[in-house]
Structures are given as structure tokens and as C-alpha cells.
Fold these 2 entries.
Entry 1:
Amino acid sequence: MFKSVIIGVSGGRAHGHADAFAHMQRGRLVAVSARQRDKLDEFADKYDVSARYTDYREMFAKEKPDLVQVSTPPDARLEIMQAAHEAGVPGLIVEKPLAIEGEDYRAICEWVASKPGIKIAINHQLQFHPRRLVLQRLVNEGAIGKLRFIDASSGMNLAYQGTHSLQAIGAFTPGLVPKTVFGAAAGANGIQPNIREHYAPDQSLAALEYSNDLPASLRCGENAPRVPGGDAIYQHKRIAVYGERGFVHWTMWGWETLIDGVYASGEHLYPDQDVLGQAAMCDAMFDWLDDDSKVHPLNLDAAIRDFEVILALYTSALTHQVVELPFDPPDGLIGQLRDALG
């Protein structure tokens, strides 16, 4: 049985982590850490967790967890990864986004280059939603033929949901990597100081080109299409994948396919799909902890590549130029966007 702990309890994702343990056979939640004692106790009481810490380093030392699930603001990501590595923690699942701008992205890349030996995945549980798995399998097995175009979007901005959309493209195109980014951005409300330390323009649009010359479109924020059945803004994530023989289309509340002239569609309940997706994502992490060859599809290297796309989008929006990948992102991109869009 793998021992898991959670750091950070204020956001909804921490509750998603905890709820998922009811659907896991190989993991149990043994401890929780948060800086604010009242929120810590409220969360731990809800999930009947007796081991509670306001210092996650103390939790690492005393609980010796196998898996740490991180639900903190982005500015704490690297610090926690380093501390977990130093404490001998085997694995982490870290909330997205991995970083916010070039400086923290580069610091994470430099740390990863030191080959710390800890297994890290990023919390993109949507890849493991049961319906998404079915559609991903259809595309990956060639049911819609050679891919022609992908359209992905999210109702919230790039900092909150951009990497969800990029990871979705990756899930339907394993083995392909982004080559160029041509981006635009508008709206400065999302790049003003905020308590969650999530900064991104209100609207963004990018034309992406992947290896094999596959084009894709990314839209995040107020300009993204709204999903039927979606209520709260975070529920408007979607992806459509087009091939020579048809297409598949997934949203947080439904799906449709057209394959060789045969159309099918249906609905699903996002909360039900999500808790199962969260559990399956953790099970994949347990597989990786057991077997080095079973690398988690949401591994840190893949997340670094996705976040590079976001930084390239920002750079393209500021320079009005196509950005070729890989590239070395400049410092201060959020500040530059604040000046340009404010």
C-alpha cells in the first residue's frame, strides 16, 4: 500500500485528490499539510486524516510518504520538489501550471538537468477521464486515419487551463512535439496581482505546428467557445481531433465521433468522470513507482515541453513573430505583457 500525503488544501483540486482515494486499491491518504491551521483542520476533519502538519518538511520526515500530491500556488512548486527529493520521497503529483514565466520555468529546467531521480507527474487528470481514454484510444489506433488538424480550447486563461489544453493535444498525438508557435493575447485583468499567483492574459490564441507538419489551434480565456452543459467557467474545456476518415470531439460534458460516415454522440457527468480520472492518474503513478519502465504519461519532461509552448505564445504575442521551438524564453514576460496590454 502506497502512503500518500497532500500539501495545500485551499483549492478544489486538493479535494479531488482526497475524494479519489475511495476509488484506489493501492494508495491511502495518511497525512495533510497546510500553512493555515483552520483550513488544515477543516480539510483533515472532512477526510478523517489524523496526521496534520503546518510544515511539510516535518511531514516528509515523520510520515516518509511514497507519493506527495501538491496543491499550492505556482511559486512554491520548485521549493517543494527540491525538499521532497532531499527527503527521499519517491514520487510527486504537482498541480498545474508548472510555472508562470521564464525565470521559474528555467529554474525548474536547471534542477531537472541535475537528474535528481525523483518521479514527478503534473496533475492533468483529464487525460484519464474514462470517456477521454476511449476517444484517445480510437485516435491512437488510427480509427480516424491520418490526423489533419486539432482544435483545443479552455474557458479559463492560460495560467489556469492552458496546459490542460496542450496536454490534451499531446494525449491524442503521442510522440509528436511542437515545432512552432504563432500567438496573440489580449486583456490585462488576468495579469494583475492576485492571491493565487496565477498570471495570464484574459484571451489568447495560438497557431501551433507539430512534428509531421500537424497544425493545431489553441484558444484559452474569454475568446474560447463555451461548452453545452457547462456552468462554471472552468467547465468549458474541449478538444476536437480531425483526420482523413472523420473526427472525435470531447468536452467536459459530452462527446461525439464521426468515423467512416457513422456518427455517434453522448453525454457524461464531469464530476463522476473526474474522480475516476484522478484515481486512474494516481494508479498510473503507482505503476511508475513500481516499475521504472512504466513512465507516467504526465511526466515532468512532457510538462516542461507544454509550458515552453505557453512562454513561446507570450513571446510571439509581444514580438509579432513566429517562435521556433525549442527556444530560450526571456525574463519578465508577465511584466512585459502587463505593460503591453494594460
Entry 2:
Amino acid sequence: MMPSFPEISKDWLKRAKRRYAASFMGGEFDRIPVDPMMLSHATVACGYTVRDFYERPELGAHCLAYVQEMYDLLPVTKYYFAHPWLPELGVNLKFMDLTAPVPVNTVVNAPEDVDKLHVPDLKEIEKGYTYNRLTNASRYIKEKLPDMFIPLAYCPEPVGSAAELCGVEEFLMWTETERDLVKKLIDVYVETAITGAEALANAYGSALISTGAVLENSDTMSPETIKDISPPALEKLVKGCLMKGAGPQIFYHFCGNRSLDYGLYVNDIVITPFTIMQMGYYDREPFPAKIMKELYGTRATIMPSVDTKLFVLPDNMKIYEQAKKQLIDGRDSKMGCILGTCCEVPPNSHPANIRTLVKAAEDFGSYGSW
């Protein structure tokens, strides 16, 4: 049985929508929006558990909506979960008490297994695990929270997702010894995710495409390897999703250390006028807003970010100072700016730390103050 929540304030929603729209449509409102990439913190903040977020999509979706208003964040509810479209390829997921679901098997245990993989068609996708969990959440949001509904085609990092088919260690070894097999694995996942995006677009109309790169970063692969496998995979994925009716908004999340590879994507991935670009770290520091603005600021909305690790520590000023610098360096980006976090905020983040992000946006991201 679903718990009841107070109604979302219409006045707040109106203000939040105007603020969010200004990031893409131009013009100014009150301040730069804040998006701390929130998943299971939403259920924890509402008194439930991490596991509840993933096991109960409808509850997770409503908790997300409620905390968006509570923290004064975004006017939309984007429910998603770890490892979408992998169950359709035979990967089993296990729910965990304190983390996102984890894969418990691999489907490729030898090189010859790659050619045995079956890419599901549209009907198979519509009967599968991922589609039904995502549509359960979407159906609930559209019915109960229609003003916060946004269709979402969640197709995360094609390279890291493909790695789960054979296991990450094997995949990393194959990037050096069996590169053609690695590309085949990536293609299988990309084709599956495109069909998933098509199914969601058929059900709900044009959908936000959420994707990026996580496994392949400057700590795990050489720039040469990343250039060979990652931008082509993202280009194929996003083009395919757009052709099937998803988009035109795209969110690119480049997690991890990007100090050596941040320039590899500039001219080799699809960027629409409604694209958000986010990068995690430069070595061990948040990726500089100045560099992001120089690379992408004339083509996409940028999301300079604050170190995710800080959100479980009782030190608001570290967050405030990082946010201040990122805002000052990125707030005048031509195509707009959103303040974010380097990755998902931890479930047990201190609420005061998330509020500190908003406080920094009010102090240093308010239009007319610079």
C-alpha cells in the first residue's frame, strides 16, 4: 500500500519550472537550478530505505517528487535504477539493503559466447523487466503527479553496461587483447537500449535520453582506448534513440576522473540544443566549470558539480566554497548552467548539505548579481 504525501505546491512548481526552462530556452529567472543527481536519498529522506527505492518504483518516484520540492530543486521527477536493459540480455539482478541492485551472473563466459547473444526485439522489450519497472514508475507519476512527469529513456553508459555481460575484469582485459569482441558486446547493449528507448517513446512520447560514460575514464583506460570505443558507442546510441522517437533532450553524465580524456567527446557525440553536459572529476577535484564552459558552453547547458563525497560529512562550508567557485566560473555560460554533484548523492547524505547547494545558488547564481 502506498503512503500518502502532501500535495506538491502549485506556486513552487510554477517557479521551479520557470527556473529550469531558463537553463535551456534563454532568459533569466531567479537563480541557477540545482540538481544533485538524487536516487535513493529520496526514500531515505522520507523515512524509508535504500532498498525501498529500487524495489518499489512508485514509492521511489513519489519520494523523489516530494524531496524536489523540499530542497527547492527541479520541477520534474526522473525515476531510474541501476543496470537497465541488462536483464533483457540474461543478467540477473539482486536487490540489496544498502546499495543499488547488483548483477549476480554473467552471460558471456568465453569469447565464443559473444556471438550467441540475442538482441531482443520490441515485443520482447515490452514484456521485459526494465520496461515494466520504468513504466510502472512513469504510469504512477503521470497519474498522481502529472505536472512533474517527464518521459525518460534511460540508457546509461553503453561501455560499462556492456562490461557487465562478461564481468568488468574480463572486459578490461579484452579492451587490450580482444578489442573486436568488446565492440560487439557494446553493440549488443546499444541495440538493446535503443529498442528500449523506442518502447518508452511509443508509450509516453518524446523522452529525455540519459546516458554517459562511467567505466571508461582516465583511471581505468588510456585515452587511445577510450577514443576507440566510447564516443562511437555514445554517438550510435543517441542517434538510434533519436531516430526511434526519444529526445530531443539529452543528459550526458561523464563520471570519474576525466583529466586525460575530457576532450575526446567534443566533436564526436550528438549534441542537441537541449543537451546537458556534466563531468565528474579532474584527477581528485571536481571537474572545473571553466574548462566545461570552454568546451561545451556554446553548444550545451553545462552542469559544474560539487564533490559527492562531501555530502556524508558534517562540513557545510566545504560544499559551499566548492559550489561558489563552480558557480562563479560557470554561471555566465552561453547555453545555461545547472549546479550539480559529481555523481549520485549518497543515500545517507545530510539534508543540510543538500540545502547548502541551494544556498550557494541563491548567493552566487542569482541573476542580476554578477
